[in-house]
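Minutes, methods subgroup
Present: GH (chair), OT, SY

1. OT presented the first of two proteins processed in the latest run. Sequence and structure tokens recorded below as shown on screen.
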Amino acid sequence: MNNFKSLKKHLNSCIKTMDRSRSLFVVDPKKHFTRKRKHLFGNTLLNVILLEAGSLKDEIYKLFGYHLDTPTASSFIQARDKIRPDAFRSLVLCQENG
């Protein structure tokens, strides 16, 4: 397995582990990411990492495969704001310890 595939596999593993205990990483554990929506905790975490230098609207279209039912930039920002900043620090620590 090449280095990129190994890194991607480990990143996905870290995100899945965090998703299982997402209540530790969200602002309001009783409310945030408790229902099935277009912006799930793990996907939102990964999508924040995958954003490039384009406009947020264009980046979201790219992430969601240019589908007509792509969520709005506003809904993405709202979902991102539900994640505590230390979640990203924990993700980095997980990557470093892997």
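2. SY then presented the second protein from the same run.
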Amino acid sequence: MNKDSTRYANAALALRIGLGLVFVIGGLSKLSLLLSSSKQAAMVANYMGTTGYINELFQDYLFSNGVLTPWFFLTSLSTFELFSGIALIAGFMVRPLALFYGLLLWTFVFSLPVDTVPGASVGVKTYTSPAMFVQIRDITLSGMMFVLFNLGAGARSLDLRRGQGGGNTAPDWDGLGLLLRFSLGVTFIIGGFFGAYAKIPSFATYQIILALIGLVLIFGQGTSLKTAAGAVVLVMAWYMLQKLNLDKGVIANLNGVKREFALAAAGLVLMRLGGGERFTLSDCVRRTKETLGIQASPSAVGHQSKP
């Protein structure tokens, strides 16, 4: 395996661990409540209530037939979440799981109950920010899953030992780097510009800092991009320390910052590999000039120089 292949394999490993931790922690946390006779009713009520994660449309669609119950649905989903997280960390069936979760994570955006009608109130406590903003970290996780799908299982994976760890050719990192830095950047941009609104993650950090990090992640390249990626890791570490509560158990503390492990992993990958050159600020300027005819494209210049 050459040097570039090793770097991409290690990047896949970092993404697998970061994403896998999200599901292992989330699965353990939910199952510890759903399987407790004294806590399961409150857990189901929390998910089915006005500040839960399943709106009326999805509740009617899933449970109106009387066959599927909320407890069974949540318990089954949490069990699958736990085992798929373990599988991701171990590097087993990485591509199928990455594709599945890349699509599934968007359903959490669609199913969140929100009230954003101007001047209106439904009279109950619910989410009052757009669902896409509230769930922006899940959108980032979705983008990370598609990056992982293209990279393959990577280093230290069971899939690699089974001959399914990924292709032998280097991936198009310009494309995947764009997807990764854009996916990560939107979380910081939303936090930077809308973090003062209800239930939008701001990571206990000044909004202007989040906005700057997000903009550099999307439009930066080279040293500036890697510096912003390093800032992502620092912000995640700072937020985890701020969320630490010694009155809570280990699982409860980890559950409060589970997504941040994945965001930190994405930052580490961008620090190591960069984010490519596609649609960076300089690339956008070049494309704009070419479109306006201010400068010729490199291919056209090469063609004209031929005798």
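Chair's summary of item 2: Confidence is low (pLDDT under 50) at residues 303-307.
Next meeting: continue with the remaining queue.
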